[in-house]
Structure formats: structure tokens, C-alpha cells
Amino acid sequence: MADPVRMEERLIGSPAAVTGAPAPRPAPRPAQTSAPSFDQVLQEAQRVQSAGTLKFSAHAQTRMQSRQIALSAPDLQRIEGAVQKAAGKGARESLILLDQTALVVSIPNRTVITVVDRENLKQNVFTNIDSAVIA
Known about the structure:
By secondary structure, the protein is of the alpha/beta class. About 40% of the residues lie in helices and about 20% in strands. The protein has a domain at about 50-135. It has helices at about 5-10, 15-20, 40-50, 60-65, 75-90, 120, and strands spanning about 55, 95-100, 100-105, 110-115, 130-135. β2 and β3 (about 100-105) form a beta hairpin.
């Protein structure tokens, strides 16, 4: 009995006979891995970003010192929560109102840009913000 592969080559011709070149070898298949989906990678990146710590710019630190503004651990947690809410809505620059204090925060950078106390809030105009959060 004839070899099935040989018989098939006789019917259609071998690649070497048609092109004069040796038959190309099929590329090896990549090993099946359980690579995460794009959605999983995106969700993980957002979780890591939202878990980052809040930073204070040099300007904000100077304002806090000169105006004697102190933030407690619960205050910082409330600000973090407000930043997460603003981030969830796609905000970029937010005014966060915390009791008697106002903070302008860069949401993507998780950075407090400036801090204003109640005394300095009067007659003040906040520009370049796209959202406000009451913490």
C-alpha cells in the first residue's frame, strides 16, 4: 500500500517540485498561557492608581504652613475618598470642600495643588476646575 503522504504529493506535486525550494516548516504554535485580558489589565491598573497615596505640592505645603492648616488622619481619608469619587467620574482638577477647608486637587496625579482655609475663602474665585466634591 502506498504511503498516504506520498500519494498526496503525487496528486498535487510536492512544494519542492513546484518552487524548487524545500517545503517551509510550519511555525510552532505559542504555548497556551492564561494571559489576562485587556479588561483585567485595565482594572488592575486603575486599582493600583486609586490605591496610591495623596501627595501635596510644595505650594500646598507652604499654604498649609503659613495658614496653620493641619489635616488629621480622618481628614486625609475623607480627601482620599473624595479623590476616588472624582476619579470615578473622570474629573481632572477638582475643588474638594472639607469642613472649613478647600483643596484644589489634580485627580490623575493625586496631588493637592493648593489649600485654602475659611478666612481666605471669602472673595476667592477658583478657576481651571472641572468638578467639586464635598467630603
